[in-house]
Predict the 3D structure of the following.
Amino acid sequence: MSDADVPADGGGADVPADAGAGAGATGGGRARRRRGVTGTRAWVAAVFLLPALVLLGALVVYPIGFSVYRSLFDASGNGFVGLGNYGQMFSDDGIRTALRNNVVWVVVAPTVSTALGLIFAVLTERVRWGTAFKLVVFMPMAISMLAAGIIFRLVYDQDPQRGVANAVWVGVHDTFAAPAPFPGAKPRPNADLRPSGGGSFTTASVVRAGSPVKLPLVAVQPGDVRDAKQAVAAGPRPGLVTGTAWLDFTRGGGGRPNVIDPGERALAGLTVQAVRGGAVVASATTAADGTFALPAGKAVGARIRLPGADFAAAYNGVDWLGPALVTPAIIGSYVWMWAGFAMVLIAAGLAGVPRELLEAARVDGADEWQVFRRITVPLLAPVLVVVLVTLMINVLKIFDLVYIIAPGSSLRSANVLALQLFQSSFGTDVDEGLGSAIAVFLLLLVLPVMYVNLRRLRKERRR
């Protein structure tokens, strides 16, 4: 045998061809087993996930754990009280008010915002200016809670000259109920008029035939007599009892009391009543020059009364930020901001509704209300749930609007849990143990809503 016939590796036996292949396959399987489902090695995935996990732990896990731990200690942080802070949370009247207001917020604000978003999305679907309308409705979302709070603090101002809400309300009220002609006016001191209850004034002496009645008043607002005429002294007239009502005040001084001096203004539009035995027997209204006339047959022997309606304070609107209405008013500002958010999401869902179903229903004789109630709303149910759940989680954390809009006198009535958490932790009576307990309670309130949302997302993925 020659050297050429000897194998190069010095072996005398041939190696089966499939042996190497099998070994390679086994090594490749082990390599594949060391890789994850996505084809990435486990340690590489861990390296990339580590920064996110560190941030998650530092910003979420650690604060939650520390809040739970801190809630078990007293205000100083040294005395262990167990669940004492949680018991105090439910026994404190202010916190109970905050909890009750949170329930109102969770029920009303998301429901109203979602309902308005649905209505806006459906009604603007077929109009040319629908896009512009949606832009205007969505625009408040670009405003921060701080700015929105400042805006609505002015909107709800009690003074109709500043507050838009009361300006509109007073305008509507005064359209159907005329305001008093001279609010706040009163008789001149030492005049014959005396207070007679209900804001009215009655003469001490009775009316005599041929003797004009003098009704001098003061404390009239300058704006109420800006265009008034010069008062005129009423003269005797046959069969009538006459008199004059005027502003007994001369600019610059020098006027005489109970005498109509030059420059003294007439009080037009006053209701003048003749009263006998507590009953009104005659009535008249003062003319532009302040004079009035009553039938002598009824007025003689009676007393003259100026009713309280002549001097009632001007209607100043509604106390929107008072204890009774402060929470609904703040919810209104929240709806103004978030109805656009709901509208945009619902409009996106509405764009995916099959039009043939709507047209088929109309062909079958269904009117628009039936199409909306029986087809549109059921098909939009998943989107409506998303919007509703998102807003519910959002309102559980509401803080800025309440803190900015509610005045100090009504802040306790408008209190919510997030605001109470801030006040308990950083307010005048600092108690971080109680504040941590409120924070943990808020977390427990949010968890069921989040669980429902996660279950819904899983169901959507399975489909």
